[in-house]
Design a protein that fits this description.
about 180 residues; 9-stranded antiparallel beta sheet
């Protein structure tokens, strides 16, 4: 049971080392204001991921938030308005309390443009057939997604495959139309 719980936490979302990590103390008011002004378009999709079972030391920002471990999983997804993307996730975890503190997930399109989503809110009502779910804020993007904002629900299933796991991730939400949030 602890392995399954831990795997659910690992799958959650990322402390992306590629950029500055924003913890729960971030002021989300500016992001919400940008989202309210933007023309929103629906995004839906599904992806597949794998984790090799390796835990990593926490990043500095993860440790400052009380985390004591991280992990990395990678996958691919097809998401409307984005196309085929690679997915990189590395959650900030507290393995003593078996808790996800926060996470960040990066979706990279074929041309290298990226969307970054942030999560620290677990869904209380899971869609049917799902074993985990999170509410995520779309916080930034690069290239054609520069200035993007939005909200995406992610949920899916986990299959334990010792020493790691693999699973399915579903995406359902809204992002700002390209160019409307700048």
């Amino acid at each position: 049971m602890r392995l399954l719980l831990c795997l659910m936490l690992v799958f959650a979302f990322a402390c992306n080392e590629a950029g500055p990590l924003v913890g729960p103390e971030e002021d989300v008011g500016a992001t919400a204001a940008k989202r309210d002004e933007a023309k929103m378009i629906p995004v839906k999709g599904q992806g597949f991921w794998a984790w090799d079972g390796t835990f990593l030391p926490p990043s500095e920002s993860c440790a400052n938030a009380g985390g004591n471990a991280s992990a990395v999983y990678r996958g691919v997804a097809n998401i409307s308005h984005l196309g085929r993307v690679t997915v990189h996730v590395s959650p900030c975890l507290d393995l003593v309390a078996w808790a996800l503190l926060y996470g960040r997930e990066t979706w990279t399109a074929a041309n290298g443009d990226q969307i970054v989503v942030y999560s620290d809110t677990r869904l209380s009502d899971l869609p049917e057939g799902s074993t985990w779910g999170y509410y995520n804020v779309v916080e930034s993007g690069t290239g054609r997604f520069e200035g993007v904002v939005g909200e995406v629900i992610t949920h899916g299933t986990i299959e334990v495959d010792p020493p790691g796991a693999r699973g399915i991730e579903n995406f359902d939400g809204f992002i700002s139309s390209v160019g409307t949030s700048q």
